[in-house]
Amino acid sequence: MANPAIRVLNDAGSEVLFDSWTDDVLFFVAEQVVDSTNYDANRQVTFSYPQLAGRKIMAYIDAPYGSGSISGNLIPSCRVTYSGTMPVVFVFIDDTTGAYPIAPGLLTIMLSGVSL
Amino acid sequence: MTGAVLNVQNSRGHLTVTRDYVGYGYLSKAAIPATQGIYDIWVSCVGTPRIFFDIPYNVADSSGQGYQQALGKAGVAMAGLRSGGTNAWIVTVIVNPGDSGSLPGLYIRVFGRVDLNWPSGSSRVPNLKIWTDAQKLCFDAGVRMLKLAGDTYETELILTNAVPGLYDPNNNCDAAITLPFSMANKSIAAQTRSTLSYPYNYGSYPPFDGSPEEIYQYHIITYNTLFAASGSQLQIKRCGTSDSFTEVPGGMGVVTTSKPAYSRLAVIDNTKFP
What whole-number distance in Å separates Cα of residue B111 and Cα of residue B109? Predict the structure, then answer.
């Protein structure tokens, strides 16, 4: 154990459950609902996270419907980009013309532990 | 001790333990049905769960021709997450075994925020518990804390085409990336643009009854965006899960504008979360 680290073993000492020197983790930062009222005319919306500037983030948007066109709802997608060092999450609806209602999405922002 | 700082980094300088943010802990796993279908799986978690799902590994795609090839592709995806009541969540999973007929032994794994799911900390002793300034549990050595299979933070799959051609299902409709490790026995957290029913017009004829509207004939294929893996390659692909035929006077509106689907991924090693 040459390096300073937090290592967690199981009770038998036979398995390393966590090792702060080797592992990569995700931290919870925030979550918010994105629904049809949030989108602009192009069916997209961006969220900025200046408080997380300089850090890499991950974002997921979970929609409640399992099957887009079968249940008649458009499913949101998201993508992480960076404006300089500031994380920006771009949420959009795939189909820009369809008349189906837009499914609400739950956007979760997580911190990766990695600096930009 | 308000204001005390604790930041631990790994060998690559990535933050791995901190008092500033709450981590995730492993709660449970649940089996994914092996045969074709769209399934709701109920899980328990306080607060929104983070779901990782197994992907089929080295499963052969269909040897069929034309659209039969799309119908024979194998893959799995998580297509939905919704509340099922207090601390209950419904995970919608799409399974398409393709020609293999069955994809046995796949699971979803459920992770939840440690501050919400272990509000007083785990009961394991001796133990290391770390709390934020706001007295939220953020790290607990008695819980299997979420850890990824290496640094895959920048992993993203981009699927550009909405639907493949009817008789050319492999043309520009699939994408893949190579990860720095084997994808055997791995699970991913990822979102997809899910089900899409697409009508292919294959002909038309004049109406028999003197009606002014031409009758258009369509072959409708329902596609799902699913994941599979081969070696160290992670694949995203349009799999046809059903097809039907219909005839419509005057024709159908067809979605012609579509944006690329971006799927950002986190990968875990299943052996760390039994």
Answer: 7
Tell me, what DSSP letter sits at residue B149? S
Mutate to test the interface with B, among A9, A16, A27, A35 (most CBs of B within 10 A): A27
pTM: 0.90
pLDDT tens sequence across A56-98? 999 998 887 654 343 467 778 888 999 999 999 999 887 666 6
Mean per-residue pLDDT of chain B: 86
- Rounded to two decimals, the ipTM of the complex is 0.91
pLDDT at A67: 43
Which candidate from A24, A67, A106 shows the least CB-CB separation from B150? A24
Query: Is cis: bond before B119, omega within 30 of 0?
Result: no
Q: How far apart are the first and last CA of chain A?
A: 29
First to last CA, chain B: 36
Best CA proximity match to A31, nearest among B45, B21, B153, B48 = B48
State how far the Cα of A62 lies from the Cα of A96, in Å rounded to an integer: 19
Q: Contact A67/B38, CB-based, under 8 Å?
A: yes
CB B122 within 8 A of CB B128: no
Q: In whole angstroms, what is the distance from residue B123 CA to residue B144 CA?
A: 13
pLDDT of B258: 63
Cβ-Cβ contacts under 8 Å between A and B: the total is: 168
Query: What share of chain A has pLDDT > 70, as a percent?
Result: 86
C-alpha triplet A34, B253, B261: angle, nearest 5°: 40
Three-class HEC string of chain A:
CCCCCCEEECCCCCCEEEECCCCCCCEEEEEEEECHHHCCCCCEEEEECHHHCCEEEEEEEECCCCCHHHHCCECEEEEEEEECCEEEEEEEECECCCCCCECCEEEEEEEEEEEC
Residues 6+ apart with CB under 8 A from B259: A77, A92, A94, A96
Look at A68 and B214; give whichever has higher pLDDT.
B214
Range from A29-43, A83-97, B98-112 carrying the lowest mean pLDDT: A83-97
Q: What is the C-alpha separation between A54 and B40, in angstroms, rounded?
A: 39
Which residue shows structure tokens 């974002």? A59
Which of B91, B147, B238 to mutate to test binding with chain A, by most A CBs within 10 Å of its CB? B147
